[in-house]
């Protein structure tokens, strides 16, 4: 599954996995270039072949944004551009 997703969106990566789900981080910039449409179209065509029951997409939660800001501030407290560099990161869930 990972090679399928990374083949279409090279900057995507596996964030977490459980017994029945895989969570991927998708590069937000790809949404503007049609990368998500390409991924979801290819995934729809290959669901049976990949043995995927379903998939979904979620935006970054407020808690994840807060934790990211806190972590980045603690690791780089003198970086004034830290807040400007944050953006929503879609999470792609495969079931």
Walk me through what this model shows.
The protein is of the alpha+beta class and 95 residues long. The chain has one domain. Helix content is 43%, strand content 18%. Strands 1-2-4-3 form a four-stranded antiparallel β-sheet, with helices on one face. A hairpin with a 4-residue loop joins strand 1 and strand 2. It is globular. It starts with a helix and ends with a strand.
Radius of gyration: 15 Å
Average residue pLDDT: 76
Distance between the termini: 11 Å
Unreliable residue stretches: 80-89
Number of structural domains: 1
Query: What are the secondary-structure elements, in order, as H or E?
Result: HEEHHEHE
Short account of what is shown:
This protein has 95 residues and is α+β, with helices and mostly antiparallel strands.
Give the topology.
Blueprint: H1 2-8, E1 13-17, E2 22-25, H2 29-32, H3 35-50, E3 55-58, H4 62-75, E4 91-94
Antiparallel strand pairs: 1-2, 2-4, 3-4
Question: Which short descriptors sum up this protein?
Answer:
four-stranded antiparallel β-sheet, alpha+beta, 4 helices, 18% strand, 43% helix, 95 residues
């Amino acid at each position: 599954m990972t090679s399928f997703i990374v083949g279409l969106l090279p900057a995507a990566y596996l964030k977490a996995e459980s017994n029945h789900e895989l969570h991927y981080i998708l590069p937000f910039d790809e949404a503007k270039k049609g990368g998500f449409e390409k991924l979801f179209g290819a995934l729809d065509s290959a669901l049976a072949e990949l043995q995927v029951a379903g998939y979904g997409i979620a935006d970054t939660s407020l808690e994840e944004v807060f934790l990211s800001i806190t972590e980045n501030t603690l690791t780089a407290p003198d970086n004034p551009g830290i807040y400007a560099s944050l953006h929503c990161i879609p999470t792609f869930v495969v079931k």
